[in-house]
Structure formats: structure tokens, C-alpha cells
Design goal:
The chain is α/β, with parallel strands linked by helices. The protein has eleven helices and eight strands.
Length: 329
């Protein structure tokens, strides 16, 4: 991927903490407060490898990109399928901040996860120095993927913030850095409205994603037990079986009671007697299968945790023994 044009101009940037200077014919980036770190990230220096490494961790979505060809099973295959913030509230969802890029725009029950905009992504100098022709310091495919991820992430805010009410909610939930004005932000974010799907990573060819469906399909598409763990206690994990199983058992109970009444009312229905007998046996088998399924799922869950704990303890002990001094008399 060759150099690309920064979507916005220096006049429309919302963060002026970074600046570009020509030192001996070589362009260098500096922070105006002379702190020499990334705005909003005091632990990240302005060195290009360090910044790009940090940006990959903050923006890349490798798992979702792998699942992208099959994400139509999870959500509507449209990049603008992303409700504004005020609509999220109308639908009864609470906005939950996440710093995990894989969770950005994922929702479950009454929660929707949104990643706040880092302050440095509002700087024109940052885009010009680190992303413009960034592939000159990294493999072409890697540099292209990083740019696509950042563009897709920023374009998602074009869909999230469409009205002044959305902007006020974003400020309240700390999704947008403080100090930005409504008019300035809308002019800035509108620059990403013309970004096409061909310019963003595969994940951002889709908008909102259902986390429960991602967890279901991750076993097949990612070979993982779940995409992101949402149940942290056994009671929460097993509670998901309660409603569907109760519904199934209720249906079976009504059918069995109806059969019992039919058998008791007409004794000459021999074929009905046979069907009732087989259905009763089948119901018992289904109940046994459900019980074994729940028990097996519980054993698998607890066994995986035990194996993890034991392996972690063995690793810790081996590391401790290797670090201990040898040859002491």
C-alpha cells in the first residue's frame, strides 16, 4: 500500500499537541509541551516503532478479521449498521467503555461496548508522521492493515455521533476527549464519512456485532471456546440454560398431560396408546440428554479452570527454580 492522504486537514484537527519540524532535511515530530510522549499516553515515547507497536495493540482486530467472511451469520452485512448513541439508549443499552478494539461496537443484552477515541488520533501531525507512508518502516501488508484498522475505527464514530445529543452523550461517557466543541468535532468526524469499505479492515465492513453469536461461532471459526468471556461465575454460566430448557420441558409436560387424558378417555385407541408410550420414553431420553449435557458442560468448564491453574502453578515453580542461584555451597 502506498502513501495515503490524511482524511482531514491541519485546520480541522482537534489536537495540536504534536508538531512536525524539518531538522537537517529530515522530518521529526515533537510535542509542543516538550514532554516527548504521545498525547494521552505518558508511557509511550514518540519513537516511531514504539508508537506503531502501541497503535497495533489499540486498533488491530485479528480475530474479527479472520471471522469476517462469515460475520453475516452474526450481524447485518453493512458498515453503516451502527446506531447513533441516542438510539443505543432508546434501545435500552448502557454504554460500556472498553479499550479492547475487538469489543468495539459489540453488544450483549443491555450493554454496548465502545472504545473511546485516543487524543492522538485527533492530531494531523500524528497521522502525517506515523500513518502516512508508514509501510516504509514495516512490511507493506502490515502497514496497510494498520491504516485500514484506524480508518475503520474512526469511521465508526461518524455513525455513532450524528446529532448534538450524540455528541453530548459522548462527552458525558468520556468517549471523546474533553475540550472539543460540537461544531469542531462534527466538521472533523465528517471527514471520515467518505471512507469506503475497500479502505477499511474486513471487520469494519460490518457495524454492530452480537457478542453472544460471536461466542457461539468462535468455536467453529476460531477454534476457541468463546470470543470473549461474558459469564464469570458458575451461576451466571448455567443460568443461560434455564429459560430454553424450561420452555422445552413445559411443552413436553403439556403434551404428556394431553396424552394421558386421551388414553384415559378412549381405551380403544390402540395406535394412540402406542404413540403415547413411545413419546413418554422419548421424553425421558431427552431429559436425560439435557441433564448429561449440562453436567458435561459444567465438568468441562471446571476442568479447564483446574488445568489452567495447575499448569500456571507448574510454570511458576519451574521459573522460580531456574531463577534460583545454583552452586551455592
Amino acid at each position: 500500500m502506498g502513501p495515503f492522504e490524511v482524511p482531514f486537514t491541519a485546520k480541522t484537527q482537534l489536537c495540536s499537541d504534536l508538531d512536525l519540524q524539518d531538522v537537517g532535511g529530515q522530518v521529526q515530530i515533537t510535542s509542543k509541551p516538550k514532554l516527548q510522549y504521545l498525547p494521552g499516553q505518558p508511557t509511550i515515547s514518540l519513537t516511531k516503532p514504539g508508537v506503531l507497536g502501541h497503535l497495533r495493540q489499540e486498533m488491530m482486530t485479528p480475530d474479527l478479521n479472520r471471522m469476517a467472511p462469515h460475520l453475516w451469520l452474526v450481524a447485518k452485512p453493512s458498515s453503516d449498521h451502527c446506531s447513533p448513541l441516542h438510539t443505543q439508549i432508546v434501545r435500552g443499552r448502557n454504554i460500556v467503555i472498553t479499550e479492547n478494539p475487538e469489543l468495539h461496537l459489540c453488544w450483549i443484552d443491555n450493554r454496548v461496548f465502545i472504545k473511546p477515541i485516543p487524543r492522538y488520533l485527533l492530531s494531523w501531525a500524528f497521522w502525517q508522521h506515523y500513518l502516512h507512508d508508514s509501510d516504509s518502516n514495516s512490511p507493506a501488508e502490515e502497514g496497510s492493515s494498520l491504516i485500514q484498522a484506524v480508518l475503520g475505527y474512526m469511521r465508526s464514530y461518524f455513525f455513532l455521533v450524528r446529532h448534538e445529543s450524540d455528541y453530548r452523550m459522548a462527552i458525558k461517557e468520556h468517549l471523546i476527549p474533553e475540550g472539543t466543541k460540537y461544531e469542531d468535532f462534527m466538521i472533523f468526524i465528517s471527514c471520515f464519512g467518505n471512507i469506503q469499505d475497500s479502505q477499511v479492515s474486513p471487520r469494519y465492513h460490518f457495524g454492530e456485532l452480537r457478542l453472544r453469536r460471536l461466542n457461539q461461532w468462535s468455536r467453529i471459526l476460531l477454534r476457541k471456546p468463546y470470543f470473549y468471556k461474558v459469564a464469570w461465575q458458575y451461576t451466571d454460566y448455567l443460568a443461560r440454560y434455564y429459560v430454553p430448557y424450561l420452555f422445552i420441558f413445559t411443552i413436553f409436560s403439556v403434551v404428556l398431560n394431553a396424552m394421558q387424558v386421551g388414553v384415559g378417555a378412549r381405551t380403544d385407541w390402540q395406535s394412540f396408546h402406542g404413540v403415547s408410550a413411545w413419546f413418554s420414553v422419548g421424553t425421558l431420553l431427552v431429559v436425560c440428554v439435557f441433564i448429561l449435557w449440562i453436567a458435561g458442560d459444567f465438568v468441562l468448564l471446571s476442568g479447564r479452570e483446574v488445568i489452567y491453574a495447575v499448569s500456571h502453578e507448574i510454570f511458576a515453580r519451574s521459573k522460580s527454580s531456574n531463577a534460583s542461584p545454583k552452586g551455592i555451597v
